Predict the structure of Aminotransferase.
Amino acid sequence: MAEQTRQAIQQGRSVIDMTLGEPDFPTPAHICEAAARAIADGQTRYTPINGTPLLREAIAEKFRRDNGIECTLAQINVGCGGKQVIYQAFLATLSPGDEVMIPAPYWASYSDIVSMNGGVLRPLATTPDEAYALHPQVLEAAITPKTKWLVLNSPSNPSGTAYTQQQLEQFAAVIRSSRNQDFLIMVDDIYEHILYDGRSFVTFAQIAPDLAHRILTVNGVSKAYSMTGWRVGYACGPRFLIDAMTKVQMQINSHTSSVSQAAAVAALAGPQDEVRRRCGIFQQRRDYLLAQFAQIDGLATPRPEGAFYLFPDVRGFIGRKTPAGLRLEDDVALASYLLGAGVAAVPGSGFGMPGFMRLSYATSDQNLQIAAARMAASLGNLQ
């Protein structure tokens, strides 16, 4: 869909692009100024593979301040975005046939990274009726002797599901009682600061410190600080895992940009008021779209608790015909139809959940108004 969307836009067609997984806000000024100072000060040479001491200190303080996690500098890995950190963790640990449990729907890259490193994806079923939340019983039943990782992404891309302390404690109880005490837990907190309705964020290592020797907590500056292009992700985890990931990174790209690292220090250690303000704007956008989508017959949209996506159930439209008489056989065909109507969305099949659709509201209010009107008209025209 991304390529189809690009082609449509290049052809001059009016398309509201709701496929993007990045904020539409600029990087805050104080972060850009820190990067400019770093260049002027000559901070343009190689850095340690795991990041500058200053950045790792800022990361350690962030974990302490925001999450109540104690993390030494030697337990921190810094890469070119959260994706590299995740890739290195799987590359360093997976053997052919190892199983990786991930609640569905899931970020598409998880699946690809697992398979590229010889692993076997084990999707954990969820339902829209329960806001795509994983049940501890489903987790318990999925653990096998081959299980190597459990991945938890909260708030989630694409569903916006955000786990509470009680839910995480239930997962921890399952893990403690499992016969397999060797698998690791990856916690992807990249949307930590985009959380709605007054919810308090909690991460897995925070509520299960006894499992810290098995937990890799992944985060980054891309989403909260509108720094997707700066490419800075990081993680805190047990020393054996961080050391293995560092060996991998040493032969891939050495380290992320020294200037980006200086900017990340300013993001993590600087004022956070702009992050909170932007979160409020995302919540307003979410509420607007939920109200508009509620008026579209057949479109069921669970209320996301965080991130900046809606993940509606569009199964009621599969099998219908377009005004031109074309039968929509699946969610990919429906996404193509919507693109023809001027709204670009991502089929749920790419997130392990066919029959659903991901729409990002990281775009302007005007664009959201146009997109909602186009969706209502185009879906209403299906027979």
